[in-house]
Structure formats: C-alpha cells, structure tokens
Specification:
Largest sheet: 7 strands, antiparallel
Order of helices and strands: HHEEEEEEEEHEEE
Structural class: alpha+beta
Distance between the termini: 125 Å
Shape: rod-shaped
Amino acid sequence: MAEKMNQQVHPFAQVNKQPRSDEESGTLTSDQELKRKKRIKLAIYIAAFAVFQTIVILVFALTVMRVKTPKVRLGTDVTFQNFKTGTQASPSFDLSFTTQVGVKNSNFGPYKFDSTIATFMYEGVTVGQVTIPKGKAGLRSTKKVTVTANVNSNALQSTASLGSELGAGVLTLNSQAKLSGKVELMFVMKKKKSAEMNCTMTIEVSTKAVQSMNCE
C-alpha cells in the first residue's frame, strides 16, 4: 500500500498543437476568396441569363406574337376588255376589266380568309360586284387574286355628276370589300382578323387607262 502511495503520478502528456504557419493560413484564405469569387461570378451569369431571357420573351411577344391587321388593296394593273362611255350630254358607262386584289399579311403566320364580295360604286351607288374567293396569304407575304369585274351606270338615278366627269375626261369609281379570316401563329394559336378594302380609282377616258389608285 505504501509502495503504491510512493509511486509518482505522472501527468498525461499534453498533445502538442503546433500553430499553423503563415503559408498555410494564406493558402486557406486564398481558397476561400477564390470560391467567393466563383459564387459571385455564377450569380452574375444567372442574373444576366434571366435578364436576357426576359428581353427575348418581350421581343417575341411584341413582334412574333403580335397580330396585325392584314391590308387589302386593289391593284393598279387594270386591263379593260370592254370600255364604253357616253357623252356629257348623254352620260353613261359600261366597263369590263381584269385586275388583282392584293392581300398583304405582315404577320409571322398565315392568314386564311373566307370568300367575300367586292363592291364597285359610283358616288355611293353600287354599279358592279365581284367575288373574291377564299384563300391564304402566307406569313409576311402578299396573296394576289385575279378578278374580273363588270360595272355599268344602269343603277344611277341621276347622271348630272357623271356628265361633268365625262366632260372632264375622267371616270371615278370606288371599290370596297371586307375580308374575314384568322391568323395562325406557331401552328396552335388562331386569332380572328378582319381586313377592309376602300380604294378610289380614277380612269382616264381618252387613254382607257387608270390615272390613279388611292387606297385607305
């Protein structure tokens, strides 16, 4: 018992903890800084991509997906098969001509339209009609439809203005039509669109040719 008491008690050996060298601390700091920069760069790339994607969607919505109203115009290339006019004292007209109706579609998808009637008028009175058959104007293109019209003055109640015009050597006719159809986008989206034609044609009697064509 005494021997045990006399035995020296040795304290546990302390674990030697050597402080990190300046080189190791610098390496760790450098690695942390590199990771931080990578995270910042990644965040910038993600934000830039999000902004770019938003701009693309806005441009797509404002251009490709925006549906514009097609335009319908009477062509200036008019060929007369029959051309008869009276005099200032006895005014009348009886014309037969071939022309083209242009359907201009500026959308990023085809425009399919139904058959309709184009009406020719003299001072608000219907003097002739022609059928525009159903068709399709391709994306960002113009569909031209050839029609033959017959117009005459038989329906006019008064010919005073006609006499004045024929005395001046001209004949003015107005043509109107309304197309009803649909614009197709991305092969899935369809939107109804109506296109109207309102053109005024001035014909020079002496040359039997169109002097001017104005369309609204």
